[in-house]
Write a structure and sequence with these properties.
Layout: E1 2-3, E2 7-14, E3 28-29, E4 32-33, E5 70-71, H1 103-108, E6 116-117, E7 120-129, E8 139-145, E9 150-151, E10 156-165, E11 168-177, E12 192-193, E13 202-205, E14 216-223, E15 230-234, E16 237-242, E17 256-265, E18 291-299, E19 305-306, E20 312-315, E21 322-326, E22 334-338
Antiparallel strand pairs: 1-9, 2-11, 2-13, 3-4, 5-13, 6-7, 7-17, 7-20, 8-14, 8-18, 10-11, 10-17, 12-16, 14-15, 15-16, 18-19, 18-22, 21-22
Length: 349
């Protein structure tokens, strides 16, 4: 067991497309983003957008960037020149087989309620809203409390928001693993990274402390009403987007949103993993000990940011990882989630 390397920010997309179909209009090379070059008229220029054409109402002011979160690479205020973006060089391709799996994807694929990819079992503690208002969900946002959970080798622990439709989904959040880096962010299929101040796949600082200062990251995914691209915002900054051409089921809207934690379990020697979810404390310990996701919201068909009214918990094994949902206090609609994994008392299997 080792403390994980918490990364900012993992982005994930589930698609059924070949590489030649992505057509992002931008490619990464070294530490920069290549500018499109002029081509003959028979080969049209591929372009990319630097910002969305529309925002959810109150969207530009809906996140609070005063939480003190910094990317490790730019603590001193460094950023890449305009027309370039920061790209993490340490990418460990050996971990692609344990990419996060959504609870809905589990069910849609005919898997059990826990979900499996290869030899890894996926477990969840999350809030799921699946009563589409106004024809569907056009975005989601939340503040995600950041911790440094203990993880077993090859396993991960994450916290994220996920929008789903059919077998397609897009996610954003933080992820922790014993390895230095996951192959999510710079190589996330089709994602167009346009912000030269925000790096993806690098460490978050500072982190929350038990019974001490709590830190969080503000994340939002929303649909541009004109271009229909899905945009990602971090701490109130536009980071990049998934082009609408990538999707089929998600081309119009999402039918469900999930907010919560996930871990993978290799079932080493037949026992449940000791990889922790969130802070490693059960949800019942509350603020200062348990991890939380607060200010849970979605974007409706009128491009308004709303608080979900219809939702339910999804907990794969409450003896290992738990979830509490509340709308009391100053955290808006929020969840506490997490747990220690294997323990003789509640999670011995």
């Amino acid at each position: 067991m080792a403390f994980s390397k918490v990364l900012l920010i993992f982005l994930l997309v589930s698609l059924a497309l070949g590489p030649e179909e992505y057509g992002t209009g931008a490619t990464t090379k070294g530490l920069g983003l290549e500018r499109p070059t002029q081509t003959p008229s028979s080969n049209p220029v591929k372009t990319f957008k630097m910002q969305p054409t529309s925002y959810p109402k109150s969207g530009t002011n809906s996140t609070n960037s005063s939480s003190g979160q910094n990317l490790q690479w730019n603590k001193g205020g460094e950023h890449c020149p305009e027309w370039s973006v920061p790209v993490s060089r340490n990418v460990n391709h050996s971990l692609e087989h344990v990419a996060p799996l959504s609870a809905t994807q589990s069910a849609a694929s005919g898997l059990d309620s826990v979900g499996m990819t290869g030899k890894f079992r996926h477990e969840f503690a999350l809030l799921k809203t699946d009563y589409p208002p106004d024809y569907g969900f056009f975005g989601a946002s939340a503040r995600i409390n950041v911790w440094n959970p203990l993880t077993r080798e090859k396993e991960f622990s994450s916290a994220s928001i996920t929008l789903l439709a059919g077998t397609e989904y897009i996610s954003a959040g933080w992820i922790g693993t014993d390895r230095q880096c996951y192959n999510y962010s710079p190589d996330c299929p089709g994602f167009v990274h346009v912000n030269h101040q925000v790096g993806l796949g690098v460490k978050i600082q500072p982190l929350s402390i038990t019974d001490g200062q709590q830190y969080g990251i503000d994340v939002m995914i929303f649909k541009d009403t004109k271009t229909h691209d899905w945009w990602f915002r971090f701490q109130g900054k536009d980071v990049g987007y998934w082009p609408s051409s990538l999707f089929t089921s998600l081309s119009s809207w999402a039918t469900s949103v999930q907010y919560g934690g996930e871990i993978t379990d290799e079932k080493f020697q037949g026992f449940h993993t000791t990889t922790r979810m969130g802070s490693g404390y059960f949800a019942g310990w509350g603020y200062g000990k348990a991890a939380y996701i607060s200010n849970i919201a979605y974007v409706n068909g009128d491009n308004d940011i709303k608080t979900p009214q219809h939702y339910r918990p999804v907990i794969t094994d409450s003896g290992c990882y738990s979830l509490d949902i509340s709308d009391r206090g100053n955290l808006g609609l929020h969840i506490f989630f997490g747990g220690p994994g294997n323990s003789a008392d509640t999670c011995p299997h």
